[in-house]
Amino acid sequence: MASLLQQELAAVLQRDLPHLFNGGLAPSISMVRVTPDLGQARVYLSLLLGNNATDRLEIIKDNAKEIRHALAKRIRKTARVVPELIFFHDDSAAYAAHMDQVLGTLDIPVAPKEETDENADKPARPRLFNNE
Asked: What is the pTM of this model?
């Protein structure tokens, strides 16, 4: 059900309700989690492209009823219940980019070379007794 909702919500936001974004790009849906009773669906939106992610999220939250109605029209023959939609901002991609930048700026020294052991070529033999 979560996969179906993710695909259909993406189509609704891009094709059926593009006027919500004033000609801008519709957000991508990174994940949908549905409660076991199918009463609620938590929709995580990736709002990387474009300005003001919080403003865009508020627009989507304000139009949740309209989005749910458009979704109901699309899945009415495959789903018996259309869950209540709760939208969240998914900032995992932005966090990953930030962590990549932080790790790129670290000055990590090269590990010292270990001394080679003359018995390194021989495979280790398990010890059966303490005095071996």
From this structure: 0.66
